[in-house]
Amino acid sequence: xxxxxxxxxxxxxxxxxxxxxxxxxxxxxxxxxxxxxxxxxxxxxxxxxxxxxxxxxxxxxxxxxxxxxxxxxxxxxxxxxxxxxxxxxxxxxxxxxxxxxxxxxxxxxxxxxxxxxxxxxxxxxxxxxxxxxxxxxxxxxxxxxxxxxxxxxxxxxxxxxxxxxxxxxxxxxxxxxxxxxxxxxxxxxxxxxxxxxxxxxxxxxxxxxxxxxxxxxxxxxxxxxxxxxxxxxxxxxxxxxxxxxxxxxxxxxxxxxxxxxxx
Amino acid sequence: xxxxxxxxxxxxxxxxxxxxxxxxxxxxxxxxxxxxxxxxxxxxxxxxxxxxxxxxxxxxxxxxxxxxxxxxxxxxxxxxxxxxxxxxxxxxxxxxxxxxxxxxxxxxxxxxxxxxxxxxxxxxxxxxxxxxxxxxxxxxxxxxxxxxxxxxxxxxxxxxxxxxxxxxxxxxxxxxxxxxxxxxxxxxxxxxxxxxxxxxxxxxxxxxxxxxxxxxxxxxxxxxxxxxxxxxxxxxxxxxxxxxxxxxxxxxxxxxxxxxxxxxxxxxxxxxxxxxxxxxxxxxxxxxxxxxxxxxxxxxxxxxxxxxxxxxxxxxxxxxxxxxxxxxxxxxxxxxxxxxxxxxxxxxxxxxxxxxxxxxxxxxxxxxxxxxxxxxxxxxxxxxxxxxxxxxxxxxxxxxxxxxxxxxxxxxxxxxxxxxxxxxxxxxxxxxxxxxxxxxxxxxxxxxxxxxxxxxxxxxxxxxxxxxxxxxxxxxxxxxxxxxxxxxxxxxxxxxxx
Amino acid sequence: xxxxxxxxxxxxxxxxxxxxxxxxxxxxxxxxxxxxxxxxxxxxxxxxxxxxxxxxxxxxxxxxxxxxxxxxxxxxxxxxxxxxxxxxxxxxxxxxxxxxxxxxxxxxxxxxxxxxxxxxxxxxxxxxxxxxxxxxxxxxxxxxxxxxxxxxxxxxxxxxxxxxxxxxxxxxxxxxxxxxxxxxxxxxxxxxxxxxxxxxxxxxxxxxxxxxxxxxxxxxxxxxxxxxxxxxxxxxxxxxxxxxxxxxxxxxxxxxxxxxxxxxxxxxxxxxxxxxxxxxxxxxxxxxxxxxxxxxxxxxxxxxxxxxxxxxxxxx
Lengths: 263, 498, 316
Fold this sequence. Notes:
The complex is a heterotrimer. Chain B has helices spanning 2-22, 28-35, 58-64, 115-128, 158-161, 220-229, 240-244, 270-273, 275-284, 287-295, 326-335, 353-368, 380-389, 407-411, 428-439, 443-459; strands at 37-42, 72-74, 80-82, 85-90, 96-101, 137-142, 146-151, 183-189, 193-198, 211-216, 234-238, 250-256, 259-265, 300-301, 343-349, 372-378, 395-401, 464-468, 470-476, 479-480, 496-497. Chain B is an alpha+beta fold. The longest helix of chain B is centred in the first third of the chain and has 21 residues, at 2-22. Chain B is globular and about 70 Å long. The A-B interface holds A 33-35, 39-40, 53-55, 209, 213-215, 224-225, 227-232 and B 220-221, 223-225, 228, 241-242, 244-245, 289, 292-293, 350, 356-357, 359-361, 363-364, 367, 374-377.
């Protein structure tokens, strides 16, 4: 009963937030960069989230910024999952010295706090959406790889895999047709966590003004901008932050619901 | 067991909330008033070296203005008044300046200023390489109480250069700065603060407050929060948005920053080498919108590298050379061979909110004519390194000020061989006019040539000149005596609690 | 003993890999050190002479070895920007960051352990259900946003602290200021710890030995505390050790929110300003701290429960 509540609330929340964000990819109430309005207007019917110090519509900027965040997070999850699954599947299946080497490297990478790797990678690669996605993806590969590896190592010893081997299925077929669908539960929960970490990390980086241009609407940068106007325009910070919180909350509720369903 | 955990939990919470209450410090401003000290907020860390001769940045000069003095010094009206020198005479051929030292002027280390110190200081400044104008000095002769400087050629600006700091002879550069100003250097911590205290043996009236702490807030948000919360008493160079939030406990004074804010263009970048392109950028600029966003409509339009407080040299009409006209700008861009615009990265020092805000407004205006603008905020140190020294940039929004009250200080950087010509501007006619101004024997002739220089800069659209920014200064209510200077300086000696 | 020795050997190997990777990354990042030191007007001959003097023309491995050797003797180099030794710069900034971390950690332990135990004890009850929902929400709020909310609520509305005004002086002066940043970073971690503790206590309570001793009639809370807590300590300790590591690294962001002059801010400005020696030293230092925390967790876990193999303690 309860597990369904988590899942249901999570799905509804995520659908709403993602719907709002996807809408922003195609349509916003105003142009997000147009400095057309009075500055620092409080929320009203015309501007539900008010305007910023340049007289830009905050709602439009939040929609565009959240769109970027969503795309970056999805890209990160895609990179992390695909590369992580490949590495994890192969090392878990074959074991041996390659496994040992990759896991050592994995340990070394995991001992860097992710924010440090991000700082270094973004400084190395330069700013921009693609680079941010790439950097975040690289950061999340080790944790996926580790999870997938242990699942594959375990699957190796199980009956359905043995019978597949006896039936003469190719290794690739066994890995990706037989085993992969069997471990999707673990993967999905890793993906929801990874997605949320990506959203958090992207917002934190842009809050630190790393890898973002100030005139591109981005949630983290807008939050740091709003901080100096907390007194006169608290809605700027609240509205922007709320979008991040709702996005993360929705996805984490889905993850929680799925996990409870599994048990 | 259960109770024990709960007790532990509660007592820890209590302890921590007590710790939190310890920071409740709403009386900080009163405490400072009682101690007769003030805190000044500044937006960037100072340069590594506090050497008065090699300081490049206005921010450094702004602080050091209170520590160092020259033989003469500028007053709030832009006149040069006696400082370490009590009076001076100029020979009839305009070549010999004799400065009579004020008796009993002391350095912060307690020693008395001698003619030897002055000669040594002038020599140090010449060696630093940053004071090209001093190459004109032929000889420095000293007596017991006077110093006479002999020039190779007459220079009507010469007195301005004698604002250079007087420091003790054989002063060791690793040590703390020692000058003769109304404040004495006490300490500094990188990225955090710099502390000055009142110099009791100052020759003149001296400072009113006993201690000044410059607190560094490289983050504009933190700066405003600190002002609001009572941690800072004085802060200059605020934007209107920032200033508007402070009216409750601050008086907002308005002056001008005494700098020329512009989109400085690197003429070595292909599209910008083209004069028509540069003119198109100038037509794209809508100054009114910049004024509105950055300073609630305040600001003085400038059209060349000279700011209004240089009354004699300022030509207000140059600002009207390129009235805002998007269509015309587009047409000119097409005419220059860029009908689809071009890519332009504008590098901005990120700790200066007025420049950051201006850059964002201007970027929108340039996008309107098809230029594909990217803004690249950089930290101040890397701006200095890459943009100012390295000239590795395309365009930058920044303010350029004058180190001395001379036209030369503003205009020399655009001569093609100047080492600080960070825009790579190169124009034979300009070089000629500037050289003529330096050679000129009368002030009228020099002025005429300097004005010609400004006109050339404007006519060739050397840069997209914007404004002399309104300088919004927040001064805590209960403090008075803040004065604006015609150059980038904050004189704290006149500030006092009322 | 052999286990400990093996763990320490692995740790040393990881440290070498980590410091090498950092060294390579920052070498790519920072450009020519000679130009940084002499300025852009220096002549090519002088630049070349300095490069030879500093050994910048040597192969990467040689430079890394030299840097490592110097670092081991306590010489982390000199900051390009401040001209001070890196170790003195770091020493100045270590205080606030360590205090912040310690404070946040104390909060996490003090709040999450009682809450986790209570939540498990009354599993399914009203308190437990409320906590579960609150946990989910708290985990979804990024610490820097919590920080902004605190600044607004406690700083601007309630005037409990002066936002942005980090007090000068020693720990005694600034520990109060650090309470709110510490709470902001602690909150999501508290939620996670409570959740973890609750789950592992409940898992443990399902085990046979608990059921057996319950059927023998011992009091319920006696069993809960004596056996279950001890066994659930392992995953929680591991998690807490990683929390310390995360708190240290997270200081980069939270110090920015509250304008705390700590290691994180120094790291940020030195990366932006391409001050390679400083940035490199801080990154390596933080990474080492993380590795040490992980090792501590491993060894502690082993001590509490010697049956454990080497499987515990990896970062998730």
